[in-house]
Amino acid sequence: MNLARTWSRPRTWRLAVMCLAASAAMCCSGLSYAMSPPQTQQPSNPAASSRHIGAIKAINGTTVTIAPDTGPDLVISVQASTRLLRIAPGQKDLKSATPIQFQDLQIGDRILVAGKPSDDNASVVATTIVVMTHSDIAAQHQQELQDWQKRGVDGLVTAVDTAAGTVTISSRGKPLIIHCPANTVFRRYAQDSVKFDDAKPSTLAAIHAGDQLRARGERSADGGDLTAEEIVSGAFRNIAGTVNSVDSGVSTVTVHDLLSQKNVTLKITPDSQLHQLPPEMAQRIAMRLKRTGTGGPPSGPPGASPSNPQSGNQPPGPPSGQEEAGAPRHFGGPPDLQQILSRTPVVALADLHKGDAVVALSTEGAADSGTAITLLTGVEPILEAAPKGSSASILTPWSLGAPSGDAGAP
């Protein structure tokens, strides 16, 4: 088991990740095995020992308070006999662990603690503490992000063959066959979260046509196949319509969706991106939609399927179909659409009013609700150009969050 994947989760992993680990139970069992002392040192009563994983929240004297991945805060008492070890991200056992001192611990470090719990389970007298420092975790995250950008692909799923162990996606208008050997790690975005770190362990069978998918692995010489090491997939919703109501008290906006002709309530969270399209950009998108007559995504070449611009797989062009002045580029390719979007004016929930035209991308959620990933205002020209609601697909390129990052970050 990869200890780095288990420990590098922020607390909101809290559910289980894309992203970097298996279930909490598997994490504990794998880590427990890695840190187990020789058989002769095992306690005579194993039930008297407990193990906990979490982040250091406070250090006071010889006690450490951690925020466990599950449950309330826990006070750890460190004795002179407590064994403290530091392990680097990526290590699967404690063979290369380095002994450290109590003063080396820092707030934010991830630790696994083994020891004797108190009667009320609010504290633990530690016998062993294994540490992964927050600086090591951050460096590992950055390396993983760079690897996803270098060896990652993404697109829309067009076919799944569980017997053959393959998934076919459409990426930049071309089919790409993704092979899934037995060691491929599958994750799936949570129903109401687009955070890469909230994705849950999944299977090949959970992937369906129409899903959006990101994979990391080795491509074939001709570029038509990829053998995946990791896959994250998810189903997202495109919504286009007018604001029906805004409730600032519970941070929701209800939109009358033109495609379904139903009201959809979107939860606005701190991670939701709310922006206003400048009039000139909205007009260019509308002109593109009228010109193609398809109502499909205005970015990229005709017939191209959406592709997340954060990956290194030739991101699509800007919404106007032309290069935006001063727009950042990835690897000499077209401008980065996510960064273009981030440069548009930010709006608050209070800025939305009944009757405003909006286009939104949300989590799958329930039939009449979801969590907003991105919501754009100032889109009246776009809805006029594609009044049936298909104009919502202009947000598809921003649908996936990033490895080791939040939505809009992948």
Largest sheet: 5 strands, mixed, barrel
Principal-axis shape equals globular
Count of separate DSSP helical elements: 6
Helix content: 10-25%
Distance between the termini: 23 Å
Mean pLDDT: 75
**What Rg do the Cα atoms give?**
24 Å
Instruction: Give the percentage of residues in beta strands.
Output: 25-35%
The computed structural class is alpha+beta
Number of strands: 19
How is this structure best described in words?
By secondary structure, this protein is an alpha+beta fold. 15% of the residues lie in helices and 34% in strands. It has 6 helices and 19 strands. It has a 5-stranded mixed barrel with strand order 1-2-3-6-5. A 5-stranded mixed beta barrel has the order 7-8-9-13-12. Residues 1-44, 294-336 and 397-410 have low confidence and may be disordered.
Task: Give a concise summary.
This protein has 410 residues and is α+β, with helices and mostly antiparallel strands. The protein has 6 helices and 19 strands.
Give the topology.
Blueprint: H1 3-7, H2 24-35, E1 50-60, E2 63-68, E3 74-86, E4 98-99, E5 110-117, E6 123-132, H3 134-151, E7 152-161, E8 166-171, E9 174-179, E10 185-188, E11 200-201, E12 212-219, E13 225-234, E14 236-247, E15 252-257, E16 262-267, E17 273-276, H4 279-292, H5 337-342, E18 357-363, E19 369-377, H6 380-385
Parallel strand pairs: 3-6, 9-13, 10-13, 16-19, 17-19
Antiparallel strand pairs: 1-2, 1-5, 2-3, 3-4, 5-6, 7-8, 7-12, 8-9, 10-11, 12-13, 14-15, 14-18, 15-16, 18-19
